[in-house]
Amino acid sequence: MSVGSDIYSWIKQSLPIKRTLAGPGYDETLNLIRKEIPNLIIHEYKSGTQIFDWTVPPEWHLEHAYIKNSSGETIVDSDDSSLHVLGYSEPVNKILSLEELSKNIFTLENLPDAIPYVASFYDSNWGFCMSDKQFKSLKEDQYEVVIKAKKNQGVLKTAEFYKKGKSKKEIIFSTYLCHPEMVNNELAAPAILTFMAKLLAEKETKYSYRFLFNVETIGTLCYINKNLKSLRENVIAGFVLTCFGDDANPNIIPSRYGNSLADSFAHETLDKLNIDYTTRSYFEKGSEERQYTHPNIDLPFVTITRSLFREYKEYHTSLDNLDIVSPESLESSFNIVDSLIKHIEDQPIFVSSTIGEPFLSKRNLYAEISFITKSSELREELSTKIVNLNAFCDGKNSLKDLYTHLPYGKEEVDDLIKISLKHKLIREISD
Questions:
Q1: CA distance 130 to 107
Q2: Which letter does DSSP use for residue 323 in this model?
Q3: Which of 175, 202, 257, 410 is least surrounded, with the fewest CB atoms within 10 Å of its CB?
Q4: How far, CA to CA in Å, does 322 sit from each of 17, 308, 326?
Q5: Is the dihedral angle over the CA atoms 282, 283, 288, 294 positive or is it negative?
């Protein structure tokens, strides 16, 4: 079997699981990841814990939910799809008229055959979701409405796989795993990263790699809250992957200023692969880059998608199913990540070895004589170029970035790097 087929099979197995922010469905999905990555580490955060400006929610356990008409005919049943139930619904057991029931029904008029995904994590609500076509077919009647669910003060979980490299400097791949029964938006990226982590575990790498499987927003904030100091010290680039399983051309959501190493690596990789892609505005953010790139966190992260969240019609609906991915499209996305990692591994990233400009005279790299000769002119020109190179060796520029920023030819920049390395004016960040 191909890696695309393996990823597709894993998604198919995981799809029926009734996931939400915290609860048995999320745990079950983490267990499936752990089957592929035995060294997966699970972190727990107690309900009610204050995390920055947020609070860890309770667990939600959905036992069963349904709507029946007066004849006992089942209209919707959570066993058919957990999307039928408003996420984090309160328990309900009522007999309601169609008018009363309709106040708690969610549909999409523009997609009459789709069941929308709707949740209410922090407010007390209840509700059902169904296709607009089904809702409009309902007749005046008395409906039995039952939601057997409970909220427990339990734990919210995140998971990570850490691949130690020769350097402590690390690359992060982050995704989320908390939406029920959706493929491209929810399961594609976690599945791809699961199999990429499995592959990378067997390889020797220059950099260390961390794969994060979080709960969207609050789970990511939990992880950042616990690890912010080490993240700031060690992470040189991070990538959020979401909506990554179809065959659409990729999109990049840049970092806040669009000039981080993550931006460079993402663009350089897709350029190298000759893939048409679109660079979006940071203001189109909508995934976990919102947390990683927030000013008070400020980590070098970008998001890479295929179809962009909110823009493809199947997003957050029951239409986001196996029909919109294939083993081939999943393998294509897997290969993008693989190429990205290979590109990062091949790239030397330089940092200055001195605080302040280096003292070039003691290295015989600066003209100290007061009168001008051809020799001194040449040496002074060289020293200026070395200092200019040094100014851009801040650990935030790829090799291609140095070629772009410095007003010299590629070969000359390479020579300046060789001289600077020889005299220990710069070093690779991975050393």
A1: 6
A2: G
A3: 202
A4: 14, 17, 7
A5: positive
Calpha distance 431→425 (Å, rounded): 14
Vertex 285 angle, CA 280 and 286, to 5°: 135
- Whole-angstrom CA distances from 154 to 60, 121, 266, 419 are 9, 15, 38, 59
Longest CA–CA span in the chain (Å) reads: 105
Return d(Cα 9, Cα 366) in angstroms, integer: 63
Cβ contact 196:155 at 8 Å:
no
DSSP H or E segment with residue 418 = helix 410-422
Instruction: State both tokens at 277.
Output: 């892609």
pLDDT, tens digit only, all 431 positions of the chain = 799 999 999 999 999 999 999 999 999 999 999 999 999 999 999 999 999 999 999 999 999 999 999 999 999 999 999 999 999 999 999 999 999 999 999 999 999 999 999 999 999 999 999 999 999 999 999 999 999 999 999 999 999 999 999 999 999 999 999 999 999 999 999 999 999 999 999 999 999 999 999 999 999 999 999 999 999 999 999 999 999 999 999 999 999 999 999 999 999 999 999 999 999 999 998 888 999 999 999 999 999 999 999 999 999 999 999 999 999 999 999 999 999 999 999 999 999 999 988 888 787 776 543 334 444 444 458 888 889 999 999 999 999 999 999 999 999 999 899 999 999 999 999 87
Helix H or strand E segment including 146: strand 142-152
As a whole number of angstroms, the distance between CA 139 and CA 98 comes to 7
> What is the DSSP secondary structure assignment for residue 324, as one 8-state letter?
G
Q: Which among 277, 229, 230, 232 is positioned nearest to 254, based on CA atoms?
A: 277
How far, rounded to the nearest angstrom, does the alpha carbon of residue 140 sit from its chain's CA centroid? Answer: 46
CA distance 95 to 98: 10
Dist. CA 153–CA 174, nearest whole Å = 26
CB 94 within 8 A of CB 108: no
Class of domain 61-152: alpha beta
Query: Which of 199, 206, 215 has its CA nearest to residue 236?
Result: 206
- CB of 247 within 8 A of CB of 331? no
Domain boundaries in the chain? 3-57+155-346, 61-152, 350-428
